[in-house]
Amino acid sequence: MSNPQLKIKPPTRSIELYSGTYFGACALGGVLACGPTHTAVTPLDLVKTRRQVDPKLYTSNVSAWRSIYKAEGLRGVFFGWSPTFVGYSFQGGGKYGFYEVFKYLYGDQIFPGMNKTVVYLGASASAEFLADLALCPFEAVKVRMQTTLPPYASTLREGWSKIVAQEGYAGLYKGLYPLWARQIPYTMVKFATFEKTVEGIYRYLGKPKESYNALQQTGVSFLGGYIAGIGCAVVSHPADVMVSKLNAERKAGEGVGAVVSRIYGRIGFMGLWNGLTVRILMLGTLTGFQWLIYDSFKMTMGLPTTGGH
User: Fold this and answer.
1) Based on C-alpha coordinates, what's the Rg of the chain?
2) Cis status of the peptide bond prior to 238, with omega within 30 of 0
3) pTM score, two decimals?
4) What are the C-alpha distances in Å from 155 to residues 76, 79, 258, 292?
5) Dist. CA 33–CA 305, nearest whole Å
6) CA atoms lying within 13 Å on the CB side of residue 54
7) How far apart are CA 84 and CA 144, in angstroms?
8) CA torsion sign, 46 to 155 to 128 to 23?
9) Neighbours of 209 (CB within 10 A)
């Protein structure tokens, strides 16, 4: 007797697609996908950021963690976790929530029949533009905490207060343009590559997405996310290096163009790629788990997973 193929039992959908509640659920899924995952890789981010600012500080990532743990314990290895958690929770909610809004708006309402890849790219760029407005202040605090020795501040509250006291609220946004330069291409690659990869996987498998069970669908989400994360790392890395150095080295009153030119003149083209290997490892894993968490959450809410339609 043949075994019947495992299939998802379609859940009773209590949330109407493309309603305000639907977009709110997607935003919540983004919070859950991004806040905890970025916080979990804080040790990688800490070492990557410090080595970007000072390549001679540590001889390797392992030696860096060993040195930090010996001097400061586990707390030191996860130093900067609080601005990371808060900032990327806000950013994740905005990124995933607004992506679903703009994908529906551009693809179904304003430009019906538009090439899907163009819709993915436009929706993700629009979403990240807005999401970074929420991320930028926390990224500024995180970078200063992680890249200065002794640390600029020990906590999110202390770092926020010091920046505002010394530079006003504008100091929290002085890295916004480089952040956009890093995050918008990153997110465009992340979402468009994910959507096309998932579409390609289901095409290769030869069956519609709905014929696979929940574990199989979220497995496809993880694989598509990991592949997308590798592309994200490469595309956004030079801007990531510049954001780290700009937040650490920009002088009061110095324009963005001037500081970028000064830093580039010192580190050169090759310096923009310092730490890329660690970032590929970090973002491949990070992006894979983000899509896994996001689509798992959507399924628990009775919503379809992303891509493969």
Assistant:
1) 21
2) no
3) 0.83
4) 12, 9, 30, 30
5) 14
6) 13
7) 12
8) positive
9) 19
